[in-house]
Amino acid sequence: MEQYLLWVGILIFSLGLILVVVGRSWVIVRLIFGDRSMIWQYTIGFALALIGVFILYMSGAFS
Question: Which positions, given as ranges, span the membrane (predicted)?
């Protein structure tokens, strides 16, 4: 179970970082989430990154 949580946390954290870092320049990200404001994309990206970090913490990745 911990290994599963580790990979889910890495995946969600990576998705959040992708939204924050390259969300503006990658057209596919804008097509998936619609043509929303950049503040909305940053908010979603940071929220996903924080959820990913929490899942990584719960899986014991930082111990």
Answer: 6-27, 39-58
Q: Would you give the distance in Å from CA 9 to the centre of its chain?
A: 9
Q: How many domains does the chain have?
A: 1
Rounded Cα distance between 38 and 28, Å, is: 14
pLDDT at position 18, please? 83
Secondary structure of the chain in HEC code, one letter for each residue: CHHHHHHHHHHHHHHHHHHHHHCCCCHHHHHHHCCCCHHHHHHHHHHHHHHHHHHHHHHCCCC
Does the pTM of the predicted model rise above 0.90? Answer: no
